[in-house]
Write a sequence for this structure.
């Protein structure tokens, strides 16, 4: 409880006491009893009450989060300087004080009925450069400039939300949205849109004695028709991506099959080359063997006859003739062989 409030309470109590004394004096007088000191007591209490009321009316306590604008009977009707936090003195009964908060305030315009200062749909309807209608939810975080409290009071008389914040912000939002296409508003240029509004609003509020701390672009809603078209577009894009994925998968499978076939072909070529090389080596070996046999026959002609006999001898009975007979005679019947 500050001093001004305490003095005001004491003044009220003094007036109540004066009324009680007056009432008591009237009751005693009605009973024929004298109350000699009643007049002096009543006068004293009234004087005290007047003093306390006057002092309490002149003392004004300003909270740290407020500034006071003094309305006066002097020329101009208002003091040029606002009252600062603490205990201040004004002319009792000739001046009164209007306090303004200098802490941050938030004004919200929302499509949700319970979020904004105004109940119901208070979002901003705007039209994009390509003719699409959008509804914008936004919040303006601001405060009164302490150095311009008096000027702000003179301009708006406390109605800065209804006469400045609301109309200016809604107009600036509509102007900014009209500079962007619908796809830019909800995607690539959303930050640029918000920044454009913030810069313009900072200037307008500054001229009205307010400080803009932040502009929040909360949400952008589209018409049902456009929302449906966006959804269909997204579905089409997803299907196209899925089809592209399937094509890519098939291409990978075809490439893999081609590599497998190429590997098999390379393996067959290598195998064929191996067989050809083996045949070449085998042929060369046979050629060398034949060359050796031919060389041996040239040195010993009878070796061929011997080899021929060796091939026939295991299961055949033959009749040998003298070594100087060059013919091999026909075989006789089995069991009647002739031995020289």
């Amino acid at each position: 409880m500050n001093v001004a409030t305490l003095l005001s309470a004491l003044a009220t109590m003094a007036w109540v006491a004066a009324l009680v004394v007056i009432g008591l004096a009237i009751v005693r007088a009605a009973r024929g009893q004298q109350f000699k000191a009643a007049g002096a007591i009543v006068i004293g209490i009234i004087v005290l009450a007047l003093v306390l009321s006057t002092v309490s009316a002149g003392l004004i306590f300003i909270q740290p989060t407020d500034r006071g604008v003094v309305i006066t009977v002097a020329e101009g009707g208002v003091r040029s300087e606002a009252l600062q936090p603490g205990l201040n003195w004004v002319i009792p009964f000739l001046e009164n004080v209007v306090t303004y908060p200098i802490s941050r305030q938030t004004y919200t315009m929302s499509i949700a009925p319970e979020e904004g200062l105004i109940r119901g749909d208070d979002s901003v309807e705007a039209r994009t450069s390509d003719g699409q209608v959008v509804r914008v939810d936004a919040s303006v975080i601001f405060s009164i400039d302490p150095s311009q409290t008096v000027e702000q009071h003179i301009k708006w008389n406390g109605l800065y939300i209804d006469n400045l914040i609301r109309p200016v912000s809604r107009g600036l939002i509509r102007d900014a949205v009209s500079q962007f296409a619908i796809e830019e508003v909800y995607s690539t240029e959303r930050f640029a849109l918000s920044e454009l509004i913030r810069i313009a609003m900072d200037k307008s509020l500054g001229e009205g004695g307010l400080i803009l701390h932040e502009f929040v672009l909360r949400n952008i809603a589209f018409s049902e028709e456009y929302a449906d078209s966006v959804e269909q577009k997204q579905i089409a894009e997803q299907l196209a991506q899925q089809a592209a994925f399937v094509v890519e998968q098939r291409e990978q499978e075809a490439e893999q099959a081609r590599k497998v076939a190429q590997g098999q072909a390379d393996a067959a070529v290598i195998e064929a080359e191996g067989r050809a090389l083996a045949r070449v080596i085998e042929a060369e070996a046979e050629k060398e063997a034949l060359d050796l046999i031919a060389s041996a026959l040239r040195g010993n002609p009878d070796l061929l006859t011997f080899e021929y006999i060796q091939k026939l001898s295991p299961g055949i009975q033959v009749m040998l003739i003298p070594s100087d007979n060059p013919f091999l005679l026909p075989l006789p019947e089995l069991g009647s062989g002739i031995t020289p």
